[in-house]
Amino acid sequence: MTARTMNKMxxxxxxxxxxxxxxxxxxxxxxEMLYGFLSSISSLSDAPLIREIIEYGALPCSLRERSFLxxxxxxxxxxxxEEVKELCIAAELLNASTFFIDDILDDGRIRENKPAVxxxxxxxxxxxxxxxxxxxxxxxxxxxxxxxxxxKDQALVIVEEFNRIFHNVYVGQQLDIESVRRVNFSEDDxxxxxxxxxxxxxxxxCKIAALAAGAPQIEADALTSVGLKFALCAxxxxxxxxxxxxxxxxxxxxxxxxxxxxxxxxxxxxxKEKKKRFCELTTDTTTLREVGSTALPFxxxxxxxxxxxxLDELEFIEPKKLYRYFEALMRLVNTY
Length: 336
Prior knowledge:
Blueprint: H1 3-9, H2 16-40, H3 48-58, H4 65-76, H5 85-106, E1 110-111, E2 114-115, H6 117-121, H7 123-145, H8 152-178, H9 187-196, H10 198-212, H11 217-244, H12 247-250, H13 256-260, H14 265-274, H15 285-314, H16 321-333
Antiparallel strand pairs: 1-2
């Protein structure tokens, strides 16, 4: 995706078709970068099983939203995808590494319409591959920070932020484990977990991309906040689709969270509206649909509120092409 193409599309509002096209173009480019990077790691030649696991679990991905946001922000400030390719690869490998662990903790057996990594390769090999992924991520970030256009101060912030993402993700996962069938689990508790897990990823990569591109601090702060809000909307959408969607389309089992006793937002809303307790819920398809359909109007209202807050924070950034892309992204992620 070239800067000229992006500029041409931002003469007016960005349509859904234009956004999807750009996301697909970004995914195609980043997938090539990922294949090339993994092929270049000589140490993986001595551990073919680890390479196989990483390629099996990290290369397939539906959207590559994280690298898309890095690319979008970088180009807004005059940079190129080539300049931030290490960040894009690191962001996607980081995300894959969290899935390796998340599926184990959630007992998730299907991802991207195929057996989860731990199901196919076993726990020990999956955990080992996860650690290799983490080391690759840190190496990529270190390499990016050594580039001549990155100052020492920028490098310190980028490394600190990247480490914070890893820390927060696993704190969030621990809180998620402790939430199982917890009495009086609130919407605030739910959002705390999301902010730490996927929220810290999206907020962190937006902050890193903005600072690396030389954005003013006030704009970097706004983009960090918007990245978090994008993650909140995306997680809410995932939670409702897991109840009302098609398992083959979304690439994983339906109702995994309900079956595991994890109080996601639609479940919290349903229990409140119906004055029921978690232990009273069954996990059949009828119950999944009832919980989802009851919560849907409330979830949609929450998503629209978060979207409006996010766009308000970007209103001052010029030129408006960045605002228009985030507007289209927030519309897309709030489509149920």
